[in-house]
């Protein structure tokens, strides 16, 4: 039988889980210092950005403050970039249920980002590529469509991309998804049959598979973002449009600004990109430093014990087995991944939580556009088709008829109203002529867009073109 002293000693022992929880609560009380810098050079005037340091998860509660950094890279105009800058954040926050605690709020954020991106795309159908980064204490959440990029420089010599490029030329999975949904992927062809330029999606000729607002090129160009969420993500974030990444690799960008404060670092990255490639596109860069409260302790020398404790608490929740970056991040113990998902299927991204589809008025709401629905109006996001009955028609979240139609078109379950065409490019003296033709099925309308580019104004213009649909 154990002595009384041994029993008392045993009674005073604290379970390991309780110790971990206690240490984690202590950690969360120490918010990081967030410093940022921004720089840009404009050529087309289509890059816009958003920096908000004073957002509040709970209005009026200063302890719930979080920061947002975003780049909106428009193409064929700036209207979509401007609209998205003004509306995307509100759409995302509007999709998060009220009165959630910090952990629950962070868990709801990835789904809200999907709903916010899709709602913004639905409300404004023009063109744009977006990258959206949200920082709440030590947790970083990144959502992106297009080819803007966010990288993490962990200050230990390792640089990691936190986004996925949606260029058809480089993303095999996206090429398969687009063709499976009814799109045609190919290059421009000359008269002699020689293919030139990057892979593009037809109709429209866009070289990206995801963006906000590109409805004129087919709804298989979707606004559903890749989302990654990390904890303990101290270090330097470099967020930039493709004008930077077409000139610099991730490693080059990080190396070019080592040792500089955030404001100077952003300027240096832009300067290095211009030195390497010249000003061929808009170049926008935001640098964000996430620094421990005691800035005398370098991030690279934080005690390893903290990372091991986090590894016990947080397990990887990624649904994308192809992510090699995530495995490397976890292996070296720099950050812990809380969430990663890149699927373009809304049924996979919007979850199964019925409570998120219930409004304060007691009616159901559309999980995307947040409008109230009568119980008979909501269509389950899991339903196979708007014309067929779901095996679980009561299972939310729910969509309004408009959003359901959009979902079906994005997944190739109905016509997007556009026909694929083969555009052929012809070389002519001192210039290039491109013809694109698109027709809207059912409305018997077609639009022809012809653009002529010549280098020498004195050269006689000649026009030869042919198009097949």
Instruction: Indicate the overall shape.
Output: globular
- Which fold name fills CATH's third level, the topology of the largest domain? Phosphatase 2c, domain 1
Query: Given the helix and strand composition, which structural class is it?
Result: alpha+beta
Count of discrete domains = 3
* Main sheet: strands, sense, barrel: 6 strands, antiparallel
Distance between the termini: 90 Å
Number of helices: 12
Q: Looking at the chains present, what oligomeric state does this protein adopt?
A: single chain
The CATH superfamily of the largest domain appears as: PPM-type phosphatase domain
**Low-pLDDT sequence parts:** 7-11, 16-23, 25-29, 296-333, 385-391, 416-469
Give the mean pLDDT. 74
Our Rg estimate from Cα atoms comes to 25 Å
Write up this protein:
The chain is an alpha+beta fold and 469 residues long. The chain folds into 3 domains: 20-166 and 221-344, 4-Layer Sandwich (Phosphatase 2c, domain 1), CATH 3.60.40; 176-207 and 421-468, no CATH class; 354-410, no CATH class. It contains 12 helices and 22 strands.
Ordered list of secondary-structure elements with their pairings:
Blueprint: H1 4-11, H2 16-29, E1 33-41, E2 47-56, E3 65-73, H3 79-94, H4 102-123, E4 129-136, E5 139-144, E6 149-153, E7 159-161, H5 172-180, E8 184-189, E9 195-202, E10 226-231, E11 235-240, H6 242-245, H7 250-256, H8 262-277, E12 283-291, H9 304-313, H10 324-332, E13 336-341, H11 346-349, E14 364-365, E15 372-373, E16 379-380, E17 398-399, H12 401-410, E18 422-423, E19 425-428, E20 431-440, E21 445-454, E22 467-468
Antiparallel strand pairs: 1-12, 2-3, 3-4, 4-5, 5-10, 6-7, 6-11, 8-9, 10-13, 11-12, 14-15, 16-17, 18-22, 19-20, 20-21
GO molecular function, one term: protein serine/threonine phosphatase activity
Enzyme class: hydrolase
Protein name: protein-serine/threonine phosphatase
